[in-house]
Amino acid sequence: MGEFKHFVIVKFKEGVAVDELTKGMEKLVTEIGAVKSFEWGQDIESLDVLRQGFTHAFLMTFNKKEDFVAFQSHPNHVEFSTKFSAAIENIVLLDFPSTLVKAPA
Amino acid sequence: MGEFKHFVIVKFKEGVAVDELTKGMEKLVTEIGAVKSFEWGQDIESLDVLRQGFTHAFLMTFNKKEDFVAFQSHPNHVEFSTKFSAAIENIVLLDFPSTLVKAPA
């Protein structure tokens, strides 16, 4: 069994201070040891028709599913999720065991 | 400047041979040197309301944006994309320079 991924794509509401939210997320994953790695980005290349209004991607990696479950129920995550949810217009979450086909050299 | 990411989430049409398509994608990234790493997975945990019908995530990493551009225009990718597009009911693509906040220990 490989790593477990928590993948989130988001469209924020207009006027939201996105910087504050990404800083908050950075703080959150630093506080919670169960999160193995975290990276995020804002789309700069995709065509509008393929982006469907989504602008940001957030990808968290865990060593195993149990670590993800622990993260989900962590009080800091629960608290942050409330704030985050209020700022989003649309979101898709996918949680999955990852199949690594080509590893970085 | 960090790595460049190509993130895709997909809902396949009913009756599509998903295994064949993921095998084809694995073959594709193996053939094209510009792709630094590739992993994918099928959601097993997200709530239906948060998944919005999407089932699969595909995550490609490139050393730089130019490598992504080269991948996009590679004839093998162009050929595969035609086959892939015919099999999908819904898709979101996000392409972005990645900010790595927490690196694997």
Automatic annotation (TrEMBL), chains A, B:
SUPFAM superfamilies given in the database record: Dimeric alpha+beta barrel
The protein's assembly and partners: Homodimer.
Domain of life: Eukaryota
UniProt gene name: LOC100500080
Gene3D superfamilies: 3.30.70.100
Organism of derivation: Glycine max
Name of this protein: Stress-response A/B barrel domain-containing protein
The Stress-response A/B barrel domain, residue ranges: 4-96
Pfam families: Dabb
